[in-house]
Amino acid sequence: MSDNNMSRIKNKQNNPQRKNKKDKGKKKKSWIKRIFLAFIGLFLLILVAGGSLFAYYASSAPELTDENLLGSFSTDLVDSQGEVFYTLGGQNRDFAEANDYPEVMKDAMTAIEDQNFYKHFGIDPIGIGRAALGYVTNLGKISGGGSTITQQLIKLSVFSTERSDQTLKRKAQEAWLAIKLERQLSKEQILTLYMNKINMSGNVYGIATASEEYYGKPVEELELQEAALFAGMAQAPNRYNPYVNPEEATNRRNTVLNVMRDNGDITAEEAEKAKAIPIEEGLVNRSDSSLNSQMFDSYLVKVLEEVEEKTGLNPATAGLTIQTNIDMDAQQAAFDIANSEEYVNFPDDELQTAISLVDANTGQVKALVGGRKQEGQLLTNRATSTDRPTGSTIKPLTTYGPAIEYNKFSTYHQLVDEKWSYPDGTPLRNYDGKYVGQLSLREALVDSRNIPTARLFAEEVDRADATEFVENVGLDTNLMSKEGGLVNSNAISGTASPLQMASAYSAFSNGGNYTEPYTVSKVITQDGQEIDLTPKTNQAMSDYTAYMITDMLKDVAANYSSSVGIPGVPQAGKTGTTNYTPEQIQEHNLPSDAVPDSWYVGYTSNYSLSVWTGYDKKYEDGHWLSNKDGTRQLPRDIYQALMSKVSEGLDNSDWTKPASVSEVRVEAGSNPAKLPGPNTPESEIVTELFVAGTEPSEVSTSYGEDLTAPTGLSAQYDEDSNEININWNEYTLQDEDEKATYVLSVNGKEVSVEGTEYTVADPDSGTVQITLSVQAYGNTGPAATTSVTVPEPVEEEPEENTEEEPEANPEEPVEEDTGENDEDVEDKPDDPEEDSNDPNNPEDTEDNPSDESDDNSSTPPADNPGTNTNPETEE
Questions:
Q1: Cβ atoms 786, 873 nearer than 8 A
Q2: Cα atoms in the 13 Å half-sphere on the side-chain side of 443
Q3: What's the confidence (pLDDT) of residue 9?
Q4: Can you tell me where the transmembrane regions are (predicted)?
Q5: Contact (Cβ atoms closer than 8 angstroms) between residue 663 and residue 442
Q6: Which pLDDT band, with edges at 50, 70 and 90, does 849 fall under?
Q7: Helix/strand/coil (H, E, C) string of 490-524?
Q8: Which sequence positions are flagged as catalytic?
Q9: Which of 415, 561, 667, 840 has its CA 20 to 30 Å from the CA of residue 824?
């Protein structure tokens, strides 16, 4: 080796930079090794802990019996009269042997439900791991399955299918029992038990039963497309029911065919040929029993949901007696009204409706119709669906109810209907595109005017109060908007099911008491245990709110009496419609007056009834409602037909006004409310309701106030000046802008005076009668009266002439009469013209009232204790 090479080697060995890199590399490898070992240790720890937990849970797993696997106990449903009207469970289940099922059915089921069925030992470890991970990431809730057919059989036989029951403990127990079952039975036996047990929509259990119900043939004759449909239905039998949802059923069937093709169970050509067959092909008409059960199908759906939710029991297998609240007469009437042309003129079979009838005093659901012209069982229940907006039927709940309950607004409370936009700038219009200006709370609700309602909600009703009110009557505010919670637009529309609306309105009928609607009163288990499911009744609002809302909604019902009126039955209600947006109208070429939804919610003292109508596919040609063809009025027609029926023979009493409400006559247009004045025309007086203690006290003077007689009227005769001086107290009007004048009458002669005194010059002798009235607002009040006596004037006696007159000489001429001879004067006849100038004639003073104007404006003198007054006219 050369010196140069030796030198390079030494340099490398002695190079500190290269040495540091080598040390860092060693440290990095050391840390990676440590992390790897830590992960291995953590994995082993989790494995041990998981195994221990699995063993602990498995040790408490229930026993798996032949009875669990092979059979179930039927459940009886009892109506409100105690009669069994439906039996759920075992009676509609046909058991088939393994060799009865064709291979195509077995292939379809394993392809879509469990592709590794013939390979695993009862559980899918990867699926279990996925479920465990979901349990950790979802805070103790199982989010994903991985269940095998064996596990599903265990679940159907032993456990509940409710999502709330899918805990880690339950999953572990399912897995343990599945492993045990795989050791006891063959794969073929397990698959057969599963296909005999699964629900196939409604009261149909097992594929053998479904084959007869849907296709009218034994299971061994099923064809590829039929087997694929049944295999797909196992996941969601009601959703993929071909009678109810043919489009979704078709898509699900085709998915199964695609999976079978990919697995090699069938060829691509066979798959395409099967997919080309319409889903309706081969389906038989429903049996008479199916038609009979269809009458109460919507009610049945709600009953099963309620029992499972409240008890955790499976009505299809638990052998229960379920005491329902169904009124079979009402249910039959509701079904007939919705499914015939005898009561209502429906335009076509596609138009849908939802009907909910609730006992207003107990909350018991008496009848439900979730749709019309439907086929199948346990179908879509539109009566409990919340996917269609309520329109104006929400107004009493989100806006007017809270305004009365918390703000104590009267039914007269004044609002303004004028051009207005939401706080975010979105414009709002009324149904007629007009504005009416000032109007009352009652007028705004009865005429269903959007703008004053939205302004009331946005500007005067506290959002927290509105939220509390709505939730007190069972509505979910989280459904009201995309954001969750009430928003400004909820003043005029919201989201709630027809059943929720009927129940919420029942609180108005029941004095403010709310009971959650319920179809089941109690459940009796197979061992005799009674489970009471009657909910508690709560005071949702004050009785004054319930009564005042009802009183206003009675006006709505009266306005629509031709369509909802029932003789002898007091009732209240509210209409509601929703609108297409301008963009939707343009995009789908819809008529300008078309609407997608129409509602009517009304109630009596006995029942609350909610009716919705519309189309499921609301953008298709002809699938809208209109005033022109009467389809917008259909909810009212349905309401009248059913409410008339159920009200027969009942005491349909009117609501009694509680002590917390005052009925007050108010002058229309006054703001704030004022009592009518004495001259307010009857046409300008309205009777409205006020919360006791908030009644108006101020009297309106718009048409004049209640005038009274003036006080302090006195009259005094002044002998020196030969005058009567009349005085009175100044009259004060409530309206400071109005000026009072006085009408003075002296011995029947009237004069108008503005001051508080008047002088009569040279009055006639004798008793002088004086009256005085106040004049204001174009009206004259009552008079005060008094009198004064004017003495007779004292006449002077003429002096006698004592001088002796010389005797006249007849021959002397007679001097001309100068008028100075007293006797000649006395003998002269009266001159009427002189009488007319008599200063003592009171008429002279009236001929020239301007001479007294200065006197009338002077300050009245102090009362004279000697004044001759009439005490009855003084206050």
A1: yes
A2: 18
A3: 38
A4: none
A5: no
A6: very low
A7: HHCCCECCHHHHHHHHHHHHCCCEEECCECEEEEE
A8: 113, 392
A9: 840
pLDDT, greater one: 695 or 32 = 695
pLDDT at 825 over 80: no
For 153, the enclosing helix (H) or strand (E) is helix 149-158
CA 568-370-653 angle, to 5 degrees, is: 15
Quote the mean pLDDT of the chain.
Answer: 83
- Could you name the CATH architecture of 292-385+509-548+555-654? 3-Layer(aba) Sandwich (3.40)
pLDDT at position 595 is 96
301-334 pLDDT per residue, tens: 999 999 999 998 888 778 899 999 999 999 999 9
Structure token digits, residue 373? 């012209």
What is the Cα–Cα distance from 557 to 602, expressed in whole angstroms? 8
DSSP state of 410: -
83-99: string of b/e by CB count within 10 Å (b at 16+)? Answer: eebbebbeebbbebeee
Residue-wise pLDDT for 829-846, tens only, equals 344 333 333 333 333 333
Task: Give me the CATH topology for the region 391-495.
Answer: Beta-lactamase (3.40.710)
Q: What's residue 13's pLDDT?
A: 46
**What stretches of 290-350 adopt beta strand conformation (E)?**
321-324
The model's pLDDT over 584-616, given as tens digits with 9 standing for 90+, comes to: 999 999 998 999 999 999 999 999 999 999 999
* Helix, strand, coil percentages, rounded to 5, for the chain: 40, 15, 45
Is the previous residue joined to 672 through a cis bond, with omega within 30 degrees of 0? yes
Q: Are 781 and 707 contacting, i.e. CB atoms less than 8 angstroms apart?
A: yes
Kindly give, in sequence order, each residue whose CB lies less than 8 Å from that of residue 426, ignoring residues fewer than 6 positions away: none
Q: DSSP state, 798?
A: P
User: Is 368 in a helix, a strand, or coil?
Assistant: strand
Which is more confidently placed, 780 or 825?
A: 780
What CATH fold (topology level) applies to the domain 93-284? Answer: Penicillin binding protein transpeptidase fold (1.10.3810)
Q: Which whole number is the average pLDDT over 741-762?
A: 94
**What is the number of alpha carbons within 13 Å of residue 34 lying toward its C-beta?**
6
Query: Please, are residues 174 and 159 in contact by the beta-carbon 8 Å criterion?
Result: yes
Beta partners for residue 531, in sequence order: 523
Coil vs helix vs strand at 341:
coil
Query: What tokens does 247 get?
Result: 């489009």
Query: Tokens at residue 723, please?
Result: 């005058």
- The H-or-E segment that residue 782 falls in is strand 779-790
Contact by Cβ (8 Å): 260, 228: yes
Question: Between the CA of residue 289 and those of 216, 295, 297, what are the distances in Å?
Answer: 15, 10, 12
- The C-alpha atoms of residue 105 and residue 219 are separated, in whole angstroms, by 9
In CATH terms, 705-788+844-875 corresponds, of 1.20.140.10, 2.60.40.10, 1.10.3720.10, 3.40.50.1240, to: 2.60.40.10
- Per-residue pLDDT, 808: 47
For the sheet containing 607-614, what is the strand order? 365-369, 352-359, 607-614, 597-603, 572-577
Residue-wise pLDDT for 246-292, tens only, equals: 999 999 999 999 999 999 999 999 999 999 999 999 998 765 445 57
Q: What is the pLDDT of residues 764-781, one digit of tens each?
A: 999 999 999 999 888 888
pLDDT band at 820 (very low <50, low <70, confident <90, very high): very low
State how far the Cα of 48 lies from the Cα of 420, in Å rounded to an integer. 68
Percent of all residues in the chain with a pLDDT value above 90, rounded to a whole number: 62
